[in-house]
Amino acid sequence: MTQAEIAVDRVTHRYGDRTVLEEVTVRLTEHRVGVIGANGSGKSTFARLLNGLVLPSAGTVTVDGLDTRRDGKAVRRKVGFIFTDPDAQIVMPTVAEDIAFGMRRLKLPEEQVRQRVAELIARFGLSGLEDHPAHLLSGGQKQLLALAAVLAPEPDILVCDEPTTLLDLRNTRRFSALLETLEQRVVLVTHHLELLENFDRVLVFDEGRLIEDTKPAVAVATYRKLMT
What we know:
four-stranded antiparallel β-sheet, Rossmann fold
């Protein structure tokens, strides 16, 4: 799988009169990138900028040269997004239908869709739940379903915005272990700092600014110092 470059160039973002990100410039090429910061630091806005869910007030965000402002649809084919609350992205009635949804939008052959759905159901521990109502799954199962559905059309990059916040410890570890097996580049926003131990790089945001961009141990130390 190709490793698409994400380029964030002098990006500022405002909600009304409030500036939530200011003059952020960074290029992401590593396989595993973590993003940390206090609530309100701008990290979730940064994550949403990477696939065009949020557009910058100033500056540009590109993925393999595709501008999120001009080429949003093409960017979202390359960059999958996992929300904190999986109910926000489960759109179909059953597990199998939800996984198939993204592939059908690509007009893939029906047999290819069925095979891919079966593969993902087995891989993510959802066997036997194919016809189960998606919104009646447990919290951990819903997040696994959300991950399977986002990966079904095979994006190059996966951006995860605090995907383990609503999970217990066992499901947090399970979700993290699955992320480690993915070929896709992963950008993970999290408060669970232990998940970042083996990451290639960690970004630290504070009050809308990128203040640290380094190896996990140093970045986490910077964040802990900020919190004290």
